[in-house]
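Researcher: Next entry in the queue.
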Amino acid sequence: MVEQRQHGRTPVHNSEVYLLRQMPPTFSTIPPLSPPSPITPAEDDDFCNGMPIEALSLSQPAIAVADEKLAVEERLSNAVHVLSTETTALQNLTALYSTDRLAREGFNRAVEAITRRNHPKYPPHHHHSHSNRGATDGKIVVIGVGKSGHIAKKLVATFNSLAIQAVFLHPTEALHGDLGQIGPRDTFLLITFSGKTPELLTLLPHLDKSLPLILLTSHTRPETCELIKHRPDTILLPAPIHEPETKSFGVSAPTTSTTVALTVGDALAIVASRELHPSVASVFAKNHPGGAIGAALRKPSLSEKTMRELAVGMEMIPLLNTPPEKTATGADVLRAGYASPSGWVRLQNGDVISPRRIRKLDSADLVASLEELKGWLVMSKKEFVPVAADSSVEKAAEWVLGMRVALGDGQYEDNAIVAVMDRGGCVGLLEVGSLLEEA
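Model: Structure for this entry, 439 residues:
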């Protein structure tokens, strides 16, 4: 302390209390410097922006909201994981049937087995005796149990809607009398992920060996499949998954495996139907008249379809917009017709130019003024042939043909225009030629 005073120093005072002890003579007698006192929130204006600590604490409702958001995120993350996993399985399946020789050969043989035995030009196996079915009634007998049985039933519905006759056969019921529904032109389609389902192995010896047997399974090689070992001529249709479902989802519930099986079955149904029928869409529409799908596919008959449905609505006929200082030409009409969603063009006075007339414009007409072309290009409202909007297309066409024969003055020729009328107003237009083509 004496030395401090001699050098003009004074003790530094703060809030700390120090316990001084006698220092050994070998050490300096100067005590170590005291650490600075901690700054309290009140001493720092910027601390937490001046907010008291209590205000930053989470309340119980805030914690509950945060927990709920985390739960929602986890829920959606799990859902996306399932979708991503099954998408990956389908991508691998696509690659398999694009590159693997055995998979491609198996699919080709499966389609041939179905189409050959569902086509009347191929005779049945006459030595088969336990069926009363006709020679041209070949069908697919789809067999499965458990979740594979549900996939089998769905595929039966798909085959039938595409005009390929199919039935579901439960393996246990088959052993108790249902084998009687198997016909001499039938094809078996067995579905088993493991390839060793006990019920199918029990049934296998009782299935006619002269009938083709397709196996939809996870195995990609015949030598690994137990069922094929018992029947080597089986057609292998692989439907593998890239990883076990227990690894993907922590549970062995059939998920990815049923997705790939259903997908391969759908591919088989679509391809076979295309080879058996000239128009798959038409047979599907015929076999599926009900529900929203049937309503969308069903085309109304001419006796049901009305002129209102067939006509081009006035809102679909745009005006021919030409600057006042410019004289409209045939080229302007052609451009307007090309840009029109209906192909029709309307003038300010209500006269119209129909698609058939626009198509008759030649190179000389393109430079001619609209006034010069009006004689044959533009149809005046006075020339329209009025028809009630609720008239059927069939009746309207019959009436137009009758008037054409009776008058023979060109008013009812293909270029003529039918005005579809409702409550005294025109709701749409139609060329006579288009009406007769529809009829």
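Model: DSSP finds 18 helices and eleven strands in the chain.
Researcher: Noted, moving on.
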